[in-house]
Design goal:
This protein is an alpha/beta fold. The protein has one domain (18-246): Glycoside hydrolase/deacetylase (TIM Barrel). It is built from 9 helices and 12 strands. Strands 2, 3, 6, 10, 11 and 12 form a 6-stranded parallel beta sheet that branches. A two-stranded antiparallel sheet has the order 1-9. Helix 7 runs parallel beside helix 8 (217-229). It is globular. It starts with a helix and ends with a helix.
Length: 247
């Protein structure tokens, strides 16, 4: 797909809500999410979450289990068990982490089934109900495909979710070293509070020297502190969805 076609696809996809749902939130809510996920999202990030009494959503790519990918060690099976035992949510990020718009629908469906089988092999009777697009890339076709399977699909388009939300491409705010500023994070928190919106934060690894797409412990702490100071409840994605739909 050419760069021009990719840009056109993003514009169309972002402006085409394929799973609209009216938010019933009477108060703002937030979610903290981790994609892929590098092991430090749990070994470092998990302790920070525990100190703040916060439960998060970890989007799992089965093929990354026990492997190094792009220079980062990823989670192992025991991490998944500990995460669930601690009350966090496991979400689906496909098994192979392919760019969805470039892959056929049958192959994507098979890949999601493979990821579900992997998670159930590790965790038993566990059903993932939240999805995040690999690389944040979606198309009208993949929004329909994953929207039929999962209650929510999260992208990386910046913004908060309010009013008529698109559950097939929820907006999110990155806590990522390559562009992060405390002012932007605070602005998202302020917007969520002012508009009774659902703000979803995402990152990848958590370390003192993170990847461009990861966060330092201080960056994660900053977001949690900002949410707590604003009085915004922090919930895993599946629980925040229930709050937004049924209040």
């Amino acid at each position: 797909m050419s760069l021009l076609l990719e840009q056109l696809n993003r514009q169309i996809t972002q402006r085409l809500p394929l799973k609209p749902a009216k938010s019933k939130l009477q108060a703002p809510v937030a979610s903290i999410t981790f994609d892929d996920f590098p092991r430090t999202a749990w070994t470092r990030g998990g302790g920070i979450l525990e100190a703040h009494d916060v439960k998060a959503t970890y989007y799992v790519t089965g093929d990354f289990c026990g492997r190094m990918n792009e220079g980062l060690d990823h989670y192992v099976e025991s991490d998944l068990k500990e995460i669930v035992a601690a009350g966090h949510e496991i979400g689906c990020h496909t098994f192979s982490h392919q760019n969805g718009p470039t892959v056929g629908s049958d192959a994507l469906s098979d890949d999601v089934e493979r990821n579900a089988a992997f998670v159930q092999d590790v965790l038993g009777d566990y059903v993932m109900s939240s999805f995040a697009y690999p690389y944040g890339e979606a198309s009208p076709r993949t929004k329909l495909l994953f929207g039929d399977r999962f209650p929510t699909s999260r992208g990386i388009r910046k913004g908060v979710n309010k009013g008529l939300m698109d559950l097939s491409q929820l907006k999110a705010i990155g806590i990522e070293k390559w562009w992060w500023t405390p002012e932007y994070i605070q602005g998202a928190v302020d917007q969520a509070k002012a508009q009774n919106a659902w703000v979803i934060f995402f990152t990848h690894d958590v370390s003192d020297d993170p990847s461009p797409f990861g966060a330092t412990p201080q960056m994660l702490e900053h977001a949690l502190d900002a949410l707590k100071t604003a009085g915004i409840e922090i919930l895993p994605v599946k629980h925040a969805l229930a709050r937004a739909m049924f209040n």
